[in-house]
Specification:
493 residues, alpha/beta, Amidase signature (AS) enzymes, eleven-stranded mixed β-sheet
Length: 493
């Protein structure tokens, strides 16, 4: 059956349960769409044989009345930061060339055990360091909403390939990771839903580490209900991850009641950024009105340390990255560039294997952790991080959720900010504070820019209260009525 790849995750689940088509038919439709749109560079590695094998097994289970639940037989794309047994895992880096794990990450194992079908490994910024997907060793993924004025657009980052695959209808859903906005910002740029769960909700075991105190796995899909469904399959307590929290995993989809009566929504006054485009400010105000119309109370709140969040993040995250990436030395796995001495081999391998952005962050991180600067930078940043988290706790004593923009602009052209790291880092200005505090946040497509590109709104909730975040996100989605599709899809139809 053709056109099945255009179904949302929820619609595909319903069709499978009714026997309208098989998992193999659905998977073949996605694989064909992937082959047709390789120009987007959304995938580093496609896994058609594995996908067909898992789809066939799912169909056999359904025929025997042994389906494993609502996710059984549904295809998805996995960001190439998740280690997958027997499948090349690169983290978008040259230094992991040839690395084929002998083990499976907990999140992808959970989805495999739920019966899901992995279509392939999605492109990403190298080691998840970036906001545009241009730092990938395998070249940038392209936003299906482009090109504009003859130039391709970034899909956002670092989970840009995952976002592009979902927006282009190559996969009904994908999984990404979010360190400072790497699920939410590309979701906004590509006009899809992206959820960063609470830190500790999903296991980090088997995910190639960037910044261990910030990294968190999360779902990306076209609808809020799809994201809720996928999160239910991803989340679990994992004894192999010391930061995994033994909390009950709710029925997230059941939380989408559409009723916001009794909820209080905070509007952080510090998120009115200098130079914020008027269209983003107007969309933000419209979002607040939509939530009020649904029965919520809206009030201004203050997060006074917000202006310190970005510099704090760009001290802590590189510091943790410099420690995590020390293991890539050419000795045990991945790329090895020979040298006359062991030290020279280390230098050659890391110099050739890491891209410019990764080298920049490793150098920053090594600097702030060095003996003469540790107290002045890293410890001070940790103290500011505690203040930022305290701001959120104070705000959540008065409100249930916060509403903000997701990103300070719509998607921009590939290459536009490549030579200005500070301008690139500012893409995460609205998402980083949530990550520093370890809170759940979701981006919902809510409108179009003057150039016809997607804009997202972000909802932030209390720790482990993804149910309320999703409940409000469902209402926001319904009110926004976002039905626009990328021009690429209009041209293909």
């Amino acid at each position: 059956m053709s056109g099945l790849h255009e179904l949302t995750l929820g619609a595909a689940a319903e069709g499978l349960s009714k026997g309208e088509f098989s998992s193999l038919e659905l998977t073949e439709s996605c694989l064909a769409a992937m082959a047709d749109r390789r120009d987007l560079n959304a995938f580093v590695t496609e896994t058609p044989d594995l996908a067909r094998e898992r789809a066939t097994a799912s169909d056999a289970r359904r025929a025997a009345g042994e389906a494993r639940g609502p996710l059984d037989g549904l295809p998805y794309a996995a960001k190439d930061l998740y280690c997958t047994e027997g499948v090349l895992t690169t983290a978008g880096s040259h230094i992991l060339d040839g690395f084929v794990p002998t083990y499976e990450s907990t999140v992808t194992a959970n989805l495999r055990d739920a019966g899901m079908v992995m279509l392939g490994k999605a492109n990403l910024d190298e080691f998840a360091m970036g906001s545009s997907n241009v730092t990938s060793y395998f070249g940038p993924a392209k936003n299906p909403w482009g090109p504009r004025d003859g130039r391709d657009l970034v899909p956002g980052g670092s989970s840009g390939g995952s976002a592009a695959a979902v927006a282009a209808r190559l996969a009904p859903a994908a999984i990404g990771t979010d360190t400072g906005g790497s699920i939410r910002q590309p979701a906004a740029f590509c006009g899809i839903v992206g959820l960063k769960p609470t830190y500790g909700r999903c296991s980090r075991w088997g995910i190639v580490a960037f910044a261990s105190s910030l990294d968190q796995a999360g779902p990306m899909a076209r609808r809020v209900r799809d994201a809720a469904l996928l999160l239910g399959g991803m989340a679990s307590h994992d004894p192999k991850d010391s930061t995994s929290v033994p909390a009950e995993v709710p029925d997230y989809a059941a939380a989408l009641t559409g009723d916001l009566r009794g909820l209080k929504i905070g509007i952080p006054k510090e998120y009115v950024a200098d130079g914020m485009p008027g269209e983003i400010r107007m969309l933000w105000e419209r979002g607040a009105d939509w939530l009020k119309d649904a029965g919520a109370e809206v009030a201004e709140v203050s997060l006074p340390h917000t202006r310190h969040a970005l510099p704090t993040y760009y001290i802590i995250a590189p510091a943790e990255a410099s420690s995590n990436l020390a293991r890539y030395d050419g000795v045990r796995f991945g790329l090895r560039v020979p040298g006359d001495t062991l030290e020279e081999m280390y230098e050659n391998t890391r110099g050739a294997g890491f891209g410019a952005e990764v080298r920049r962050r490793v150098l920053i991180g090594t600097y702030v952790l060095s003996a003469g600067y540790y107290d002045a930078y890293y410890l001070k940043a940790q103290r500011v991080r505690a203040r930022i988290a305290e701001d959120f706790r104070t705000a959540f004593a008065a409100v249930d959720l916060l509403l903000t923009p997701t990103a300070p602009s719509a998607a921009f052209a590939i290459g536009d900010k490549e030579d200005d790291p500070i301008a690139m880092y500012l893409n995460d200005v609205f998402t980083v504070p949530t990550s520093l505090a370890g809170l759940p946040g979701v981006s919902v497509p809510a409108g179009l820019s003057a150039d016809g590109l997607p804009l997202g709104l972000q909802l932030i909730g209390r720790p482990f209260d993804e149910t309320t975040v999703l409940r409000a996100a469902g209402v926001l989605e319904e009110a926004a009525g976002f039905s626009a599709v990328p021009g690429m899809l209009r041209e293909d139809s």
